[in-house]
């Protein structure tokens, strides 16, 4: 049994190695095609290897406790070692305890293995359990009855039953045929002359009264306790099963000839039925026979059965049908009797119409509420020599005492294939109306099969503690679900896995496929790979123990093969199949007890998990048959993507050559240096040449011309490299060569016009990738997928993505996770596969944050459109940094804190420098008494990051910061008491205080205490309370808490966390995108952009954007808009369209990206057609992000006469009452636009809203009824005023004219008088 988990040993700073559960193994039997059986009683041992629920939790200072696991597994190096180390004798007390019935075995499922026998053509239990030796005889049915019943001797009888079957099977394999297992005990022997019980589905003995029915009527099948097989009948004589019809005596030769020629043979002759052809004995007194003939052998009402019989004495002919359903077995459902006293020695034929219960033959309707799924129906017929006076008596032993008997099987009809019943009853009008409403509805059985594709796309397993999590639900099809439930204690399933194995397991065991139950323990099956390459299989038995076996053949390396495993009862068949589908190896195992298996009570894991590392391999298609055992030829699981499969094989063949060349070249150069070095000490001049001259290189190659031409770039590069460094491990040297090749390529690409050299760099990048430096693999994947300097090649892009992910390159793993999350670039949408990749990087992100080494930088969200953030970027010689340094020197605590953070994490454009950061932490902690600086310096001293550990000083500083009320410091004190003092009471006390102050680290640490069962005063573990604390920590941004919650969502094993793969992926992606190595690439791209190095900026932004991080995608699209000539020259894809599309598909997409895509759809971007509805959706999404431009654009679309779909308005939460009025909608949109804009200044939204109100006012006045009256009145006034004005103007003109005439007359007279008086006047002269 699984051992209880020990208390945790405290929180650790890093994610420690999770304790692997103990898994035992033994060697198996034959291989290379020989089909042998291995008895797990002799070769196996009890496994203690069930996974503990929360094994291996990591803790950081903000971390988790790591509970201790169980001892390492044993028995992986052979059966002898397994027995010597793990085997142990079983005491009598233990044996008695093991023999007792186990509560885990469901009482209602004990007859699961007998259910199959109800179908025609099935093989008896003993033969099924005995392997492929078909000659094995069936053991006495008393033993089977005792083994399957719930009596105390069940387990012992089961061992007798299985042991007898195996002994006969072994005898049959050695050519001895079927042998007897010895005389049965006295209380189990049959009476003299009784035949063995036939392999029937243990029906009730015909002749017994049907339940709740009288003779001649049918009984309804109702749920109830399953009846033990073969329990009815002659209990006094020791028989617990029904015997087959007795063989009649042979007739005279003449009668035999006549019957052979003229009498038809009825019934079906199988292994399980009595021969229906009469075999008469020589005694002519016994010639009774009875045959059955049914035209359609199905369970139908009024089915016609032709009964042909012959009686030698007055007889009673009986017909009885016995059914088995999902709840009960052996229920009589039909009976018919008649007597025949006169027609003796004459063959008679009688037509009988069978009648069954309605719920067996009709579909559900308003009256028949629940149809019963019938597994089998057996129709019995027999003849009894009885007197007529006994005709009506109940005779329970008629069938056993019959002089002739026969039976046949009837095929059950599925419920949805049955007809409706014409009840011929008058229903009330309400019931009749309700029935008519659903009468025409045709229910259909869900199209479902037991064959499930667990994996259809290639998965790159890097050997880490992450893998694909699959959970299976119950079947929707009732019949399939019933079969599944019946097979819980006698499982029958098959698993087929394609693999390309790179290495055997480096340490202990590596996971291939295993089942974790609801209690987070290993279940059935658990398939692992060990260090020698053997397959280790562990099973959970019905009794509750775990047993493990190990194959005698190892799995091949670097070639595709298929691993097929089939499980049946207590038997395992293991086969390895090549690409040509020819079987290479085969082995079988037989356990002493059946397996327990419920595939819905937990989840499957493909690869690694928190309990065990995965294998280093590529997984191909994985097929799972949930209810069937199939042979190798019957399994349908082909390799679909053959191009990628072949490319993987070719890649590793090439890489083997390259690695061998590098290793040999290094070895030759090193040997030459050793030879020369011995001379340097004798000649000072040679020593100076060696020290300051050219480095050694190998000009005379031992490789052939063909190989040198094939890898000419590699040889040229090797000659330029320096191998004079101290001796290193050969594999590390190969990786180092790959790193040097990669750095040389990147240096050329980062120069001005560096992207023009991309095409010529491909061979060097391939060589670097083959040397194991998988940053080059990711470069190649991005180049071939986007067409960066090379033609687009999807197959090569996928190849190098998989290779990089298998090599644990972080960006490559994130690339695959993102593609499967979105289902883009011909990658299938697979959330479980996406989670496997993202969770791998999320775990590494937590580890990388505690590692101050490596090319890491803080991931910052800096957009190229944000000028203020761009101006704040600086370097060590920048103005911002110099000003902060000046203020920090003067004692400014805020400047010291910010400067230390920038240097420690590499923020704001400053290179990462932990040593300089620690100096500022120490200076601030001592001089300024700032609690944050004191806390940060204490953490550094506790962990020894960049400085020598000093626990005493760290504790003093932590207490000092906590006294100042800093929540982080209070949490730090709890961590100290937990980690160093093992004082859980004080730790919990400080964590509770910090949790009340809102510290997420404290919430997480409290969850760890509950999870490990060490919370003071609370006995045992409480995963529910722990999960609540983890969720609270995740909401506060805690990395480990978020990871824990994502695991709960993907497994669905926690009550408060229903299975939600999409949410699990989103949470894991959120953590993975904080990885420091990704931040380093983004920082290099931003620095290149600020320095106007366009080629380098474009290259690094593409590398970051393909990982799925949104800020890089929108920044890359912005660069392509700024420099369209650069994008068109080096990218084969439309950069702007592609990456703005990627951006808007993210959860955290910015509003300007939605506006851009909305404009593209509105106007029709280049080759893209115009889509007005998609445009409005993008504008609406921008509006929901709080962008006023989105509301403004929607209003303009409406102004042009277009209508907005209702679902978009509902998404904007606009009242339904406003949908029908365009004016009301425009008013609402303009108002929201104004409300989301800057209300203190005049914005386009405020002007648009003002203009809208003016138009509404004018339209209201223009269309008013008052306007006509007012217009007429004003017009009349205007006309009158005009007439009056005209008249007044006319009168004034006449008066002025008269007045002018009167004034002119005296003037003229005076002028004339003057002329007369002065004749010399010029006027007169002229």
UniProtKB/TrEMBL annotation:
The keyword Transmembrane applies. The chain crosses the membrane at residues 1265-1286. InterPro entries: Sel-1L3, Sel1-like, TPR-like_helical_dom_sf. Residues 1-150, 166-192, 216-248, 1295-1326 are annotated as: Disordered. Residues 1304-1326 have a biased composition (Polar residues). Keywords: Membrane, Transmembrane, Transmembrane helix. SUPFAM superfamilies: HCP-like. The keyword Secreted does not apply. Gene3D superfamilies: Tetratricopeptide repeat domain (1.25.40.10). Residues 61-77, 134-150 have a biased composition (Low complexity). This is SEL1L family member 3.
């Amino acid at each position: 049994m699984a051992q209880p988990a020990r208390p945790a040993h405290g929180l650790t700073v890093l994610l420690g190695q999770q304790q692997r559960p103990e898994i035992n193994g033994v060697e198996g039997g034959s291989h290379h095609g020989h089909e042998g059986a291995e008895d797990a009683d002799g070769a196996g041992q009890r496994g203690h290897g069930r996974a503990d629920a929360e094994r291996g939790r990591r803790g950081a200072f903000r971390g988790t406790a790591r509970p201790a696991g169980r001892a390492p597994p044993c028995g992986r190096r052979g059966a002898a070692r397994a027995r010597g180390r793990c085997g142990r004798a079983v005491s009598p007390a233990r044996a008695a305890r093991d023999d007792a019935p186990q509560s885990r075995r469901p009482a209602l499922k004990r007859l699961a293995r007998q259910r199959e026998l109800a179908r025609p053509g099935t093989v008896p239990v003993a033969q099924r359990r005995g392997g492929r030796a078909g000659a094995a005889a069936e053991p006495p049915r008393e033993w089977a009855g005792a083994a399957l019943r719930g009596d105390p001797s069940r387990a012992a009888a089961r061992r007798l039953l299985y042991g007898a079957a195996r002994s006969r099977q072994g005898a049959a394999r050695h050519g001895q045929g079927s042998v007897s297992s010895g005389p049965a005990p006295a209380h189990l022997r049959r009476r003299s002359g009784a035949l063995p019980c036939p392999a029937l589905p243990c029906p009730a003995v015909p002749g017994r009264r049907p339940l709740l029915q009288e003779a001649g009527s049918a009984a309804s099948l109702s749920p109830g306790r399953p009846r033990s097989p073969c329990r009815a009948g002659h209990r006094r004589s020791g028989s617990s099963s029904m015997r087959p019809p007795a063989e009649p005596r042979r007739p005279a030769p003449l009668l035999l000839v006549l019957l052979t020629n003229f009498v038809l043979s009825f019934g079906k002759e199988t292994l399980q039925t009595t021969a229906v052809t009469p075999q008469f004995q020589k005694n002519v007194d016994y010639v009774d026979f009875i045959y059955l003939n049914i035209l359609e052998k199905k369970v139908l009402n009024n089915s016609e059965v032709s009964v042909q019989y012959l009686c030698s004495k007055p007889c009673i002919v009986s017909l009885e049908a016995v059914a088995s359903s999902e709840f009960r077995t052996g229920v009589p459902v039909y009976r018919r009797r008649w007597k025949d006293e006169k027609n003796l020695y004459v063959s008679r034929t009688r037509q009988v119409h069978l009648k069954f219960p309605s719920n067996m033959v009709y579909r559900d309707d308003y009256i028949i509420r629940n149809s019963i799924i019938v597994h089998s129906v057996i129709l019995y017929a027999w003849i009894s020599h009885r007197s007529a006076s006994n005709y009506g008596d109940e005779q329970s032993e008629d069938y056993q005492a019959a002089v002739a008997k026969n039976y046949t099987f009837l095929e059950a009809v599925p419920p949805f294939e049955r007809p409706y019943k014409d009840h011929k009853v008058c229903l009330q009008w309400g019931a009749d109306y309700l029935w008519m409403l659903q009468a025409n509805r045709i229910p259909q059985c869900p199209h479902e099969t037991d064959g499930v594709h667990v994996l259809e796309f290639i998965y790159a397993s890097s050997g880490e503690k992450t893998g694909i999590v699959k959970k299976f639900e119950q079947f929707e099809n009732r019949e399939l679900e019933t079969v599944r439930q019946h097979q819980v204690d006698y499982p029958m399933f098959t698993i087929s896995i394609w693999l390309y194995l790179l290495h055997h397991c480096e340490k202990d065991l590596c996971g291939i496929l295993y089942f974790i139950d609801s209690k987070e323990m290993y279940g059935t099956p658990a398939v692992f790979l060990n260090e020698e390459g053997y397959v280790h299989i562990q099973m959970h038995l019905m009794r509750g123990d775990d047993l493990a076996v190990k194959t005698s053949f190892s799995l091949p390396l670097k070639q595709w093969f298929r691993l097929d495993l089939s499980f049946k009862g207590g038997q395992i068949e293991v086969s390895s199949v090549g690409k040509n589908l020819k079987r290479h190896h085969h082995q079988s195992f037989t356990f002493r007890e059946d397996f327990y298996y419920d595939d819905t009570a937990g989840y499957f894991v493909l690869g690694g998990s928190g309990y065990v590392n995965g294998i280093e391999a590529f997984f191909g298609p994985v097929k799972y048959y949930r209810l069937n055992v199939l042979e190798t030829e019957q399994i349908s699981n082909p390799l679909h993507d053959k191009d990628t499969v072949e490319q993987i094989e070719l890649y590793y063949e090439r890489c083997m050559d390259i690695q061998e060349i590098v290793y040999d070249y290094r070895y030759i150069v090193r040997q030459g240096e050793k030879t020369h070095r011995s001379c340097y000490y004798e000649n000072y001049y040679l020593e100076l040449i060696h020290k300051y001259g050219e480095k050694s290189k190998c000009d005379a190659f031992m490789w052939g011309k063909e190989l040198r031409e094939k890898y000419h770039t590699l040889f040229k590069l090797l000659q330029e490299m320096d191998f004079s460094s101290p001796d290193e491990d050969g594999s590390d040297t190969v990786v180092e060569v790959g790193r040097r090749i990669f750095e040389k390529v990147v240096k050329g690409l980062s120069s001005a016009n560096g992207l023009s050299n991309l095409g010529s760099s491909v061979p060097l990048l391939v060589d670097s990738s083959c040397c194991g430096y998988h940053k080059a693999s990711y470069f190649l994947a991005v180049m071939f997928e986007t067409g960066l300097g090379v033609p687009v090649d999807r197959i090569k892009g996928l190849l190098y993505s998989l290779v990089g992910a298998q090599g644990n390159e972080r960006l490559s793993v994130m690339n695959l996770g993102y593609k499967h999350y979105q289902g883009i670039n011909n990658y299938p949408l697979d959330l479980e596969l996406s989670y496997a990749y993202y969770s791998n990087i999320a775990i590494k992100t937590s580890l990388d944050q505690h590692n101050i080494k490596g090319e890491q930088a803080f991931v910052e969200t800096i957009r190229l459109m944000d000028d203020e953030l761009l101006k704040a970027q600086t370097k060590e010689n920048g103005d911002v940094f110099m000003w902060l340094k000046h203020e920090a020197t003067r004692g400014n605590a805020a400047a010291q804190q910010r400067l230390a953070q920038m240097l420690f994490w590499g923020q704001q454009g400053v290179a990462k420098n932990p040593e300089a950061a620690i100096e500022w932490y120490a200076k601030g902690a001592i001089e300024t008494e700032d609690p944050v600086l004191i806390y940060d310096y204490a953490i550094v001293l506790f962990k020894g990051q960049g400085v020598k550990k000093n626990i005493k000083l760290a504790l003093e500083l932590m207490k000092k910061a906590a006294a100042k009320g800093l929540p982080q410091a209070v949490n730090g004190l709890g961590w100290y008491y937990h980690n160093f003092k093992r004082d859980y009471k004080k730790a919990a006390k400080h964590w509770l205080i910090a949790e009340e102050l809102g510290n997420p680290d404290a919430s997480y640490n409290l969850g760890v205490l509950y999870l490990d069962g060490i919370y003071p005063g609370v006995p045992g573990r409480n995963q529910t309370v722990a999960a609540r604390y983890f969720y609270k920590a995740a909401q506060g941004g805690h990395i480990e808490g978020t990871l824990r919650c994502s695991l709960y969502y993907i497994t669905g094993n926690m009550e408060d966390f229903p299975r939600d793969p999409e949410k699990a992926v989103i949470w894991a992606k959120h953590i993975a995108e904080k990885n420091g190595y990704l931040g380093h690439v983004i920082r290099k791209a931003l620095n290149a952009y600020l320095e106007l190095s366009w080629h380098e900026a474009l290259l690094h932004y593409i590398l970051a954007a393909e990982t799925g991080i949104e800020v890089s995608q929108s920044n890359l699209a912005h660069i392509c808009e700024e420099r369209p000539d650069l994008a068109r020259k080096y990218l084969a894809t439309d950069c702007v369209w592609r990456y703005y599309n990627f951006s808007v598909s993210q959860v955290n997409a910015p509003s300007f990206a939605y506006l851009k895509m909305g404009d593209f759809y509105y106007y029709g971007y280049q080759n893209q057609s115009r889509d007005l509805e998609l445009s409005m959706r993008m504008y609406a999404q921008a509006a929901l992000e709080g962008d006023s431009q989105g509301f403004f654009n929607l209003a303009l679309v409406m102004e042009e006469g277009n209508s907005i779909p209702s679902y978009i308005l509902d998404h904007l939460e606009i009242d339904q009452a406003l949908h029908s009025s365009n004016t009301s909608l425009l008013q609402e949109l303009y108002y929201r636009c104004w409300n989301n804009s800057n209300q203190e200044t005049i914005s386009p939204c405020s002007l648009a809203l003002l203009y809208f109100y003016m138009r509404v006012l004018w339209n209201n006045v223009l269309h008013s009824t008052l306007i006509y009256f007012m217009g007429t009145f004003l017009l009349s006034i205007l006309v009158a005023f005009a007439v009056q004005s005209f008249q007044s103007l006319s009168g004034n003109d006449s008066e002025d004219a008269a007045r002018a005439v009167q004034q002119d007359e005296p003037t003229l007279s005076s002028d004339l008088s003057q002329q007369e008086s002065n004749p010399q006047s010029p006027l007169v002269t002229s």
